[in-house]
Amino acid sequence: MKGIVMNLLAEMVESQLGIEEWDAVLDAADESGVYTSTAIYEDARLLNLVSILSERNGIPANDLVFAFGQFMFPAFYQRYPSLIENHDNMLDFLESLDSVIHVEVVKLYPGAITPGFEPDRKSATQLFLKYESERNLCRLAEGLIDGAAKHFQHEYTLTHAPCAHDGADYCGLLVDIVAA
Ligand code: HEM
Question: Rounded distance, CA 37 to CA 94, Å?
Fold first, then answer.
């Protein structure tokens, strides 16, 4: 994972649980906490930090990963508003994840390995995304989608089927806009 992701995890923990908690997690993981945004770090290091956080705070790792996605969206918006601003609604934005957003992300962060999000637009209010990644971070994707829904001020439902964690080859994320 790119250092920007490690730095955003630090930002989330410091703002929501306090700097002492982040220092304690770094100590337990034997990490310095100094990450360069554009450098690449082993995924295992991020996952280890999440698992220590989860144990220390009694929060299931899946819930932490979802919350991290919710935190990431506004953080990305703050850094790269132009990538997000030129979409009128969440489904148009999500539809462009593979073809535009993550393509731009790889330009900004050379060497970034972004997931596959194949879109299948079912109707004006419904989009099916096929999420494929060896990292199987579908809960992060769900959190990011939730952050996007808040940004675009949509009420929505998300149906997650199938799921790679249950042995499927991919995750299906069906996003339905209920109200704008
Ligand atoms: C709701 C919209 C988005 C979703 C659902 C999404 C989903 C994801 C997921 C699940 C990952 C983890 C990697 C993996 O699964 O293999 C990821 C990585 C990443 N995404 Fe997105 N993303 C979204 C929007 C954005 C935006 C707007 C930006 C920045 C402007 C961005 C930048 C990144 C970066 C920097 C990584 C890390 C790649 C790496 O470390 O190699 N994403 N994204």
Answer: 24
